């Protein structure tokens, strides 16, 4: 994948994460198109398994460590030296948590937002369509609070032509949208209420478009924005439009058809989540 890897296998792995690879398959393809357009060297592997964050956050460290070790084995088999990912939760897991649970973890984890920003700043001609719209960027809790990535997504959106407004609580003071920490699995009603409040926050600053860097954020905000007059867009969509790759909305309005996890995965992320949820229900009794 990528122009370079047509001739030589890349050691840079694009790890899409469970939401992108198993649920939003169209966006998986869009991100690959974006990386090719920006001449970002990468390869993908058919051995896609969960990074382990859902289990890790739920307190099942043994299950998370098992997934981490298997991922490390796969990366070693594929001779991976660097990982890029569009998933904020996977980025956080690889960058912060893997070094803690894997003593011999030695993979370089790069910020794809830094890479995209560098590419666009150094070759502005790649931007085919300037998007003259007002929007607000929603900071992913994983990307912002944990990894300190706040400015790069905003600078990218500015380069694409967006005029950005800020929530009353943004960046370090960002108000969660309800998708993080497994809340949407343990208390979906509370998660939906938080997402609805986020939509209201956009309306309070007279913005009708929220752009997110996380497909998990996209999913919960999209579901709770129906009838609000606020549009939710994910980063791959705005990038593809600006780069002239796609002309229509690219994210399916229904994710049910794409939500089936790969049958050949050695560690099925759905099975991990099901086990976690079953144990949580047992504790509630």
What does this structure look like?
β2, α5 (88-101) and β3 (108-109) form a beta-alpha-beta unit. The chain is an alpha/beta fold. The chain contains 13 helices and 7 strands. The strands form 2 sheets. The protein has a 4-stranded parallel sheet, sandwiched between helices. Strands 1-2-3 form a 3-stranded parallel sheet. Helix content is 48%, strand content 8%. The chain folds into 2 domains: 4-113, Rossmann fold (3-Layer(aba) Sandwich), CATH 3.40.50; 125-242, Rossmann fold. The radius of gyration is 18 Å and the shape is globular. Mean pLDDT is 85; it is low at 1-7 and 252-269.
Helices and strands in order, then pairings?
Blueprint: E1 12-14, H1 17-23, H2 25-37, H3 53-57, H4 61-77, E2 82-84, H5 88-101, E3 108-109, H6 112-122, E4 134-138, H7 141-146, H8 151-160, E5 163-165, H9 183-186, H10 188-204, E6 209-212, H11 215-224, E7 231-234, H12 235-242, H13 269-284
Parallel strand pairs: 1-2, 2-3, 4-5, 4-6, 6-7
Helix pairs in contact: 1-2, 2-12, 6-8, 10-11
């Amino acid at each position: 994948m990528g122009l370079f890897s047509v001739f030589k296998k890349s050691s840079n792995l694009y790890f899409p994460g469970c939401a992108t690879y198993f649920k939003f398959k169209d966006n998986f393809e869009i991100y690959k198109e974006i990386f090719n357009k920006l001449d970002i060297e990468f390869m993908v592997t058919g051995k896609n398994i969960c990074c382990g964050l859902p289990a890790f956050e739920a307190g099942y460290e043994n299950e998370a460590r098992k997934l981490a070790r298997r991922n490390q084995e796969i990366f070693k088999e594929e001779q991976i030296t660097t990982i890029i990912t569009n998933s904020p939760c996977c980025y956080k897991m690889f960058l912060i948590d893997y070094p803690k649970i894997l003593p011999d973890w030695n993979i370089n984890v790069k910020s794809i937002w830094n890479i995209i920003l560098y590419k666009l700043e150094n070759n502005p001609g790649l931007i085919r369509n300037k998007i003259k719209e007002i929007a607000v960027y929603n900071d992913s809790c994983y990307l912002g609070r944990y990894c300190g990535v706040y400015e790069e997504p905003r600078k990218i959106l500015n380069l694409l032509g967006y005029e950005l407004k800020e929530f009353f609580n943004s960046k370090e003071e960002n108000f969660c949208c309800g998708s993080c920490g497994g809340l949407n699995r343990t208390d979906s009603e509370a998660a939906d209420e938080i997402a609805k409040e986020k939509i209201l926050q956009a309306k309070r600053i007279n913005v009708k478009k929220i752009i997110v860097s996380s497909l998990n954020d996209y999913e919960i905000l999209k579901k709770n924005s129906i009838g609000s007059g606020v549009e939710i867009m994910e980063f791959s969509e705005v990038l593809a439009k600006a780069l002239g790759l796609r002309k229509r909305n690219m994210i399916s309005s229904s994710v049910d058809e794409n939500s089936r996890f790969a049958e050949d995965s050695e560690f099925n992320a759905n099975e991990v989540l099901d086990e976690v949820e079953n144990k949580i229900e047992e504790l509630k009794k």
